[in-house]
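FORM 7B: Structural annotation worksheet

SECTION A. Query
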Amino acid sequence: MHTLLVATNPDPQSLTHHVLEKLKAALHPMSVEAADLAKERFDPAFTLADRRAYHEGGNYPADIVSEHRRLERATDLVLIFPVYWWSMPALLKGWIDRVFVNGWAFEHSPTSGLRPKLQALTTHLLPIAGDDSGAYERHGYEEALRTQIEHGIVDYCGSRRGATAFIYESEQASSEATARSVDRAVRIISGAIHARSRTLS
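SECTION B. Predicted structure
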C-alpha cells in the first residue's frame, strides 16, 4: 500500500495544507507521498506537445512521465483541494488534463472504443468548501462536483472509487467547528485507506 496525496493551494499556511498534514499523520505508519503542485510549480497548461501525445497515446513530455511514475507507485490517490466555483482549482484540473491522458490512464480509438487502464488505483476526494452542506444539497453542488470527478474522471479511467469527504464552512469564525469538520473528513479518508490495507494484507 502506498498513498499519494495531491494538494493544490498556493498558500502553505492554508487549510488545504493543514488537512494534508493531518491526513499524513493519520495514515502513519503506512507509506505516504505528498505532492504540493503549487510548490512544485507544476505547469497546468495543456500544450501542443500534450495534444500530440494525447492523439498518439505516447511520447509524453518529461514532466508528465515523472507524474506517471509517481502515480504508478500508488495504490491510493487522495485529491485535497479547495472548491473554486463549484469545481476544482485550475491547477488541479490542468494536472488531470495533462497527466490522465490517452495511452496511459485509458486508451481510446474510433475502432476499439474506450479501454480504462487505472484499475490498480483507488481515488479518494477531499474537497474543502466555503459554504455549508445545506447550500450544497439545495443547489445540487455536491452531486454536480461528485458526478464531474467521480464519474467523469475516476470511472472513465477505471480507477476504483474510494471515499469522498467534504469539509464544509471552511471559512467560519469558529476554529473549533472547523477542526471538527477537518477531523471528520480525515477520519473518513484515512479509515477507508486503512480498511483497504487490512483487506489486502
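SECTION C. Observations
The two ends are 9 Å apart (CA to CA). The CA atoms of residues 5 and 78 lie 5 Å apart.

SECTION D. Sign-off
Analyst initials: ____
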